[in-house]
Amino acid sequence: MRNLKVTLAYDGADLHGWQVQPGLPTVQGLLAEAIFRVIGEQVLPQGSGRTDAGVHALAQVASFAIASSIPAANLAKALNDLLPAAVRVANVEPVPDDFHARKSAHAKTYRYRMYRGAVCPPFLSRYVYHHPFPLDEAGMIEAASLMVGEHDFTSFAAVDRERNLPVGQAASHVRTIFGSEWRRDSDEMVYSVRGNGFLHHMVRNLVGTFLLVGKGTLTPCDLLRILEARDRSAAGATAPACGLYLVSVEY
Questions:
Q1: Which of 75, 105, 108, 210 counts the most CB atoms within 10 A of its CB?
Q2: Is 97 a catalytic residue?
Q3: pLDDT tens digits along 4-26
Q4: 190 and 77 in a common domain
Q5: Catalytic-role residue among 14, 52, 160, 185
């Protein structure tokens, strides 16, 4: 058996997220089906994380083991011949047996794009969140910087009913954020965040809360109070999926 690492990009607008769902197009499902068609082996690629429906990826990472001796470069080409245009394999490479796309990851970077212009170009609308209304962008920049460090992000975590833990064991919501910043890029406000891990909907919930700062409903310092509350209802609404990208995974 060979353990392989696959790096892929995808346009998530018409996909139902990463994880396999019966009867629905997902990245994991499409990749598993393509692998089977190429080498006749049934495998379930393990991703670095589960992106939600509508979320995009510039460099998602998956891993799986196969018995086939097909060269990695040939497998990459064959997979791209079978996958829809919205999913592209950038690279396939052999890795040590103990490599796991999720468990071996040390850090991830996400980006959220918000279009601030009055009229969003039609060819951009699937890939940004359009918010043309007045915002205190300086306040949002200040609020984002307060997220750097090790914190309990319970207030920004959606309940993940699909995660099964042993009886009596609670999931840890403590994560370390290495960088968190908003910046202006022409007609867009772009949020970039890099951390050692992220909870379900965490980035989108952070963005939704930063928007409350931008609207004047919250102050930047309120973000610290929300962190300490460890209560999802204390934070803002979940921002739309269309603006979110998984940018990179570090090992």
A1: 210
A2: no
A3: 999 999 999 999 999 999 999 99
A4: no
A5: 52
